[in-house]
Design goal:
Layout (H helix, E strand, L loop, with lengths): L5 H12 L1 E5 L2 E4 L15 H13 L5 E8 L10 E9 L3 E10 L2 E11 L14 E3 L20 E3 L12 H6 L7 H13 L3 E5 L18 E6 L7 H12 L23 E6 L9 E11 L2 E10 L2 E2 L1 E2 L1
Parallel strand pairs: 7-8
Antiparallel strand pairs: 1-2, 2-4, 3-6, 3-11, 4-5, 5-6, 9-10, 10-12, 11-15, 12-13, 13-14
Keywords: Hydrolase
Organism: Malassezia equina
Family: Belongs to the C/M/P thioester hydrolase family.
Length: 313
């Protein structure tokens, strides 16, 4: 178990997502070095998403939504610069464009819309899955056309296994000579001691004995920052933006049995935010695989906080 205190986790989180202002609309990552995921080849995409959001909201104090596109891989040993363009400043709506760059290389481009809150307007949300302390969860043998991965029920956080146990069975039974062994050890260490946001599978059938997403499983995860997660609403959104990229790729395996995907990368991210939330509390993320064709997959994530949808990804 990690020995870091909540304030130490908050400091770790700052190194992952914070930017400092270096000009009127110019920002730079506070850290010169950046995390590369165990199974990744470049800087974690969530870093670019979160830091772009942080840079944009420092120029306007309203609720946001984001659409971003990854263009190039980032060098993990260089600062990342964020150039904010004030596209529009209106009474109710504002828009920003953020270009994430290293030197003259454009890494990530995002447009962010900001809206002044209108809390008196009516709201409606589809009900979340039933949250229970126990239940029967089974894999689907076939994935018929039109099937949805959205679960009707999920386990409560205190009844869900820690995400650090994902590869526990595989590490116990696989020989040390297995070509994935060292990667599984490093992944487990990273989840427990490095990443400032923890996750728990809310559906116990998600991961098989090999630690991979199982075909036919429903998909839902619990998320929570390990520290106190201080800061305004838009910072909470940036923290969620950082973590969300971990689940955008592997989840598609729940719908693919033949010709399994061997190489994946995320290109486009869109986030619509509906309500305020705190990443210091458990957030339920329900995943639905909507389509996969021509090597392109479309996934929808619906984070839920206190039974209200807070975002669609």
């Amino acid at each position: 178990m990690s020995t870091l205190t909540p304030p130490q986790w908050d400091e770790r989180l700052s190194q992952f997502i914070d930017v400092r202002q270096v000009g009127p609309c110019e920002f730079q990552s506070v850290s010169e070095t950046h995390w590369i995921p165990v199974f990744g080849r470049s800087v974690f995409g969530g870093t670019l998403i979160a830091q772009s959001m942080e840079a944009a909201y420092k120029t306007v104090d309203e609720d946001m939504e984001l659409h971003g596109k990854f263009l190039r891989g980032a060098d993990a040993q260089q600062y990342i610069d964020y150039h904010v363009t004030k596209v529009r400043d209106g009474r109710s709506f504002s828009m920003r464009r953020v270009d994430a760059m290293q030197g003259t290389t454009l890494l990530f481009m995002a447009t962010l819309s900001f809206q002044a809150p209108e809390w008196e307007q009516p709201q409606f949300f589809a009900p979340p899955p039933e949250m229970c302390r126990e239940g029967s969860f089974e894999l689907m043998e076939d994935m018929p056309s039109g099937h949805q991965n959205v679960p009707s029920k999920v386990l409560l956080p205190d009844m869900s296994l820690s995400g650090t146990q994902r590869f526990q069975y595989a590490l116990t039974h696989a020989p040390c000579t297995d070509h994935h062994y060292d990667a599984m050890v490093q992944w487990t260490y990273t989840q427990e001691h490095v990443l400032p946001v923890e996750f728990r599978p809310a559906v116990p059938t998600i991961f098989g004995n090999d630690g991979q997403v199982q075909f036919g499983s429903k998909l839902a995860y619990w998320l929570r920052a390990r520290g106190t997660s201080p800061g305004p609403a838009n910072r909470q959104r940036a923290i969620l933006g950082f973590h969300i990229d971990q689940f955008m790729l592997g989840s598609i395996q729940a719908n693919v049995r033949e010709n399994p995907v061997t190489m994946m990368t995320s290109l486009d991210h869109t986030m619509w935010f509906y309500n305020h939330f705190s990443m210091s509390e458990w957030l339920l993320m329900v995943v639905e695989n909507q389509a996969m064709t021509r090597s392109i997959a479309v996934l929808t994530h619906l984070p839920t906080y206190e039974e209200f949808h807070v975002c669609m990804l």
